[in-house]
C-alpha cells in the first residue's frame, strides 16, 4: 500500500520496489499526446517507468490546483458540506480512492 506522501522523488513501492514518482502515475500522462504528456512545458521523459525530476508531476486522481495554490475543491466552499461526512470529518473524494487503488494495482506483484 502506498502512503499518502508516497510520490517523493526517491520513494518506491513497499511491495515491489518500483519507483512511484513516474510518468505512468501522473495525471498528465497521456500516450496520445506529444511526449505522452498533456503539459506543454514538460521536458521529454524517455523512460515513463523510472523516477524523474518533472516539476509538473501530480498523482493520478489528485485535484488540479488553481493559481492561488489551493485545490479546486477548496474554492468557495464556506457554506459547509463539501468533502465532509456526517461527523464533520474530512474524507477523500471517491476519485482519489480510485486513484490510490489504481496506483497500488500498478505496483502489485504479478
Report on this structure.
By secondary structure, the protein is largely without helices or strands. It has one domain. Helices cover 12% and strands 0% of the residues. The chain is built from 1 helix and no strands. It has one helix spanning 94-106. It is globular and about 30 Å long. The two termini are 15 Å apart.
Radius of gyration: 16 Å
Sequence of secondary-structure elements = H
Question: Could you tell me the number of beta strands?
Answer: 0
Major sheet summary line: none
- N-to-C span: 15 Å
Structural domain count: 1
**Shape summary:** globular
- In the predicted model, the low-confidence regions spanning at least 5 consecutive residues are 67-84
How many separate helices? 1
Q: Quote the beta fraction.
A: under 5%
Look at the structure and give the mean pLDDT: 73
**Percent of residues in helical segments?**
10-25%
Please identify the structural class as seen in this structure. little secondary structure
